[in-house]
Amino acid sequence: MSVAPATAADLVGHIFDLQRALRCVTTINVKGQDTGIALQGVLKFIGEGETRAAHLAERLGVSPPVLSRHVAELADAGLVVRTPDPDDGRAQLLALSHKGKAKLAELVRHRAETLQGYLSDWNEEDAIATAAMLGKLTASLKNSIRARAAGTTEHQTTQESLNG
Questions:
Q1: How many Å apart are CA 3 and CA 11, to the nearest integer?
Q2: What's the alpha-carbon Rg for the chain, to the nearest Å?
Q3: Using CB atoms within 10 A as the burial measure, which of 47, 101, 117, 130 is most buried?
């Protein structure tokens, strides 16, 4: 089953509106914190499990030097530990320290509480349904991006529409 062009255009508009709203919410919530939004993103990805710096840079869509600066700042704060990769002495493995795990848990708790406050007029069923649909949308977009990167053209129309 395919999505109609008008529906896709409507979704694109809602996605852009959501991006703008999230940018505003994020800006408000980062004030006064010791880690900015970029560092919080790096912390979140490292928190998913030990990883090579090069792989993390690719996942985040940043250059290795940019990631290196972020990781250095997080390591200096005692939130991330770097160890040599036993399979490749030139590579580093990144993991959260105990302090980093506690910081990530605090950030997740704070974000959940903040969102809970913003959604005070929602019911639990709407929140669950929205989370499921956002998960489905995210998975479809990631799969389309992977397919395009692999050279297939099956999903290009949807991706090109989103890129505007």
A1: 10
A2: 19
A3: 47
